[in-house]
């Protein structure tokens, strides 16, 4: 479904993502892991078309999308829930959700299904999102992405700033998406949760991938070593 080849993304001279290649197949559930500054958000934004690519290529459903706009990518079925949610705070939950419909993609997701999936939003339907709790804002951001009926849903740090209880609620909703067959790539800082939730873990360190394994074939210690750059053997294997 998604094929990224030798991707480089730069901020001026600084190579935030360096020669990264991954393949994601339909139905995959992939957690992207790595320390602060490892390049995870930069990588996701480049895939979603929110940042220009310096070199390399991105294909989605066998089409080269390296030079297409983010809105075209949404129309093709690739949606990103960005870190920090990026909602329109002066607009209501319903208005924010309806923005996601602009892509006009056919599918099962409509506004009523969003409210069924995120019951905490029902009472907030006509509230401005600037007045919502963090969990309600996150549910709105995920709902907005779902309104585009994505085939690949990319989620950047959905847990950020949420209490453990609310994180559980957000994950319960994402699990229902996973179980319905949506392909998911997400950044998760909590290693335990990443291993439990996903089939595959990819770890980034200083702009490169240092581990890419099925969660069934790895364990927490190996991921932790990759996270801190302590596992040279794994790094060589991947590169
Ligand atoms: N707009 C920017 N201009 C310059 N450098 C940037 C910019 N955004 C990110 N960087 C740098 O690029 C590197 C990768 O940042 P990025 O946000 O992608 O990492 P991350 O793994 O998502 O980390 P975090 O978990 O902190 O979000 C970091 O060194 C960061 O300081």
UniProtKB/TrEMBL annotation:
Pfam families in alphabetical order: ABC_tran (PF00005)
Entry superkingdom: Bacteria
Signal peptide positions (record): none
Keywords, alphabetical: Amino-acid transport, ATP-binding, Nucleotide-binding, Transport
SMART domains documented for this protein: AAA (SM00382)
A GO MF label: ATP binding
InterPro entries: AAA+_ATPase (IPR003593), ABC_transporter-like_ATP-bd (IPR003439), BCAA_Transport_ATP-bd_LivF (IPR052156), P-loop_NTPase (IPR027417)
Annotated transmembrane regions: none
ABC transporter domain mapped to chain residues: 2-231
Family classification: Belongs to the ABC transporter superfamily.
UniProt-recorded name of the protein: ABC transporter ATP-binding protein
Protein species of origin: Marinomonas primoryensis
